[in-house]
Design goal:
This protein is an alpha+beta fold and 151 residues long. The protein has a 6-stranded mixed β-sheet. The longest helix is centred in the first third of the chain and has 28 residues. The N and C termini lie far apart (62 Å). The relative contact order is 0.18.
């Protein structure tokens, strides 16, 4: 591979990783399980504070339960840093902000995603995703005020 071809491959891999991140957020926000399944590789691993899910089917089932409540969701991905790892593979670190709104829900929060993305058959898919939530707060109570039960 020439230097120019190698540089082009890196750029294309990085942009494909950004696309996978965007598809993930849209799939979660619209509760589209077909799109969500296509975001993850067959051998993917999802790690959250609730443990790890191994394999696309287990990940989609995890989200079927996690997204069962009837709330409007929105994700905002920010400060994304993509690091090329090898041909067709990149790591993406992102900050995220999210909102949930429903009849009895007004939640916002933020945290970090750490994703390893691999291009399979021309499609970028998440192989490993780690979600770390820093804050999840009911906006009706406020996020900057300590919980009265803890003081």
């Amino acid at each position: 591979m020439s230097d120019l071809e190698a540089r082009l491959e890196r750029i294309e891999t990085i942009e494909a990783a950004r696309g996978a991140s965007w598809r993930y957020a849209i799939a979660i926000d619209t509760v589209d399980f077909d799109m969500l399944a296509d975001v993850f590789s067959a051998d993917a691993v999802l790690t959250t504070r609730r443990g790890s899910q191994v394999g696309r089917d287990a990940i989609v089932e995890y989200y079927r339960k996690a997204l069962a409540d009837n709330v409007l969701r929105k994700h905002f991905l920010t400060n994304q840093r993509v690091t090329w790892l090898s041909v067709g593979e990149a790591r993406m670190d992102s900050y995220f902000i999210y909102t949930f709104a429903g009849d009895d829900t007004s939640v916002f929060g933020w945290g970090n995603y750490a994703d390893r993305v691999r291009i399979d058959d021309g499609v970028a898919r998440i192989v490993e995703k780690t979600i770390s939530v820093d804050v999840s707060a009911d906006s009706r109570l406020g996020w900057a005020t300590p919980d009265p039960g803890t003081s």
